Each structure stands twice: as C-alpha cells, then as structure tokens.
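User: I'm putting together a small comparison set for a docking exercise, and I want a reference complex before I start. The sequence is below, and the ligand is NAP. Could you produce the 3D structure with the ligand included, as structure tokens?
Assistant: Of course. I'll restate your input first, then give the structure tokens for the complex.
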Amino acid sequence: MTLLILGGTAEARDIAAQLEGRDIVSSLAGRVARPRLPVGPVRIGGFGGIEGLRGYLREEAITAVVDATHPFAEQISRHAALACAMEAVPLLRLERPGWEGTPEWNWVDDHDEAARLTASLGRRPMLTTGRRALPHFVDVLADHEVLVRLVDAPDSPLPGAWTVILGRGPYTANGERDLMLGHGVDVVVSKDSGGSFTWPKMRVAADHGIEVVVVRRAPGPVGVETVTQVSDARSWAVRQI
Ligand code: NAP
C-alpha cells in the first residue's frame, strides 16, 4: 500500500511531512539543481511519459496518487490523470487556489501574450515566470531593461540589457520593495501561482502603482477529484493507505 506524491511544491512537502512514517514516496522532476527535499523516501526524474508512469505505478505497487504539483505543471497532471485512470489507481489533485488580484491586474492567457503586453506597458519589467518560459520573452523584450529572477542560472545567453538574479521564495515585502524600487521596475510579470511565497511582489506593485501582468492557469484534467487544502489531501491519503 504505497502512496505516490507528485511534488515540487510546498504543499507536497507539507503532506509528506504530515504522513511521515507511513508508506509514501515523493516524486520530483529534477528540474532544479538543489531541490528542497520532502521528508521520507524520494525519487527524482521523469517517469518517461504516460506509459512510463503506468509502468512505475505497477512496478512499485502504488495504490493511490496525490498530484500536488505546481498549478502550471500541466503535463505531469495530465499524465497522472491518464495513467491513474488506465491503471485504476485512485488519484487526488491538490491545487492551491489562484490569486484574486485587483481590478488593475492585466490577465493574459499565455506567455506570448504576456510578452507582447509587457513590452507595451513598461521599459523595466521584472520577469518571474521561470526559466522554461524565457524563450517567449527574449525576442519581444530584447531591448527592455528586464530584471529576471530565476531559481537556477539560465541555460542560454540572455539579451545584454537584462539583469539576472537568482532566488526562490518565500520572499518578504521589504526585500521585494527594495529590489523592485531599486531597479525601477515598472511592470511585474507572474504566473497565477497562488499561495503566499511569491505574493509580496504583488503587494509592492499595488502599493507603488507598478503594472502587473498575470498569466492565467489552464484548466486541469477533467474528472479528477480536486481539493485546495493540504488537510483535505491528508485525510484522503490516510483513507487510501
Ligand atoms: P510539466 O511541464 O508538467 O512536466 C514535464 C515533465 O516533467 C513530465 O512529463 C514528467 O516527465 C516530468 N515531471 C514533472 N513533474 C514531475 C514530478 N513531480 N515527478 C516526476 N516527473 C515529473 O512540469 P514542469 O512545469 O516542468 O514542473 C516540473 C516540476 O517543478 C513539477 O514537479 C512542479 O511541481 C515543479 N514546479 C513547477 C513550477 C512551474 O511554474 N511549472 C513552479 C514550481 C515548481 P515524464 O513525462 O518523463 O514523466
């Protein structure tokens, strides 16, 4: 009776901590150089698509899965929904609520639209959409003085006018204020990640009249039972194991 937690988020680490001592295994994609590890057994790396995940579920005798991955990790959630359905393994999606924002926020459907809108809104944007989204912004914002914050250094060269800083949340309001005002940021670009870790930049933007561009979440896989609270996911997991 082993529970698989698809992780890479604070919520996934919380559930693993709350289920410490039970038969669980957490899975990380291996995207960042020094991941924050949950307590308990951990495996790292992709499964090899839907078929790979199906094989893993069978070989490791996984009896239930909690998909606690990031709201923008759409592919692994889709794979989990399909693999679990095909293997008749119960699946719960834990997804933190999105941000409500303010009427001033500029909502867009994807990173390309975010790039175009950002180019028209300011000259000194701050990009916080992650390393994999960078190709969508590089050409459109090549002559903007972009401040880009990443967990790990970019794997390809960025325009000369861009400044890269490395960091990962949680961030403080004071730290974000110093960073954003110090750099003269006039637009903040973010995914609708939700949660509190990366929220302070939005607060600073609201306080200082800085434009905000937010990439909407895509709808998740249909038919997957979903909760927003770690406590509910924990209760479900305990029932399964
Ligand atoms: P993604 O696009 O949905 O997934 C791409 C591939 O990465 C998947 O098909 C799978 O490879 C592998 N993968 C993803 N999550 C995995 C996991 N927890 N365990 C094992 N393999 C996993 O994912 P992503 O957006 O690159 O995110 C990767 C990880 O970073 C996720 O675990 C997510 O929770 C975390 N994260 C993502 C974001 C974000 O903004 N996207 C932010 C913070 C944290 P195979 O097909 O080979 O199985």
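The pocket of NAP is lined by residues 6-9, 27-29, 31, 46-49, 52-53, 69-70, 72-76, 79, 130, 191 (CB under 6 Å). Residues 74-87 form the longest helix (14 residues).
User: Thanks, that's exactly what I needed.
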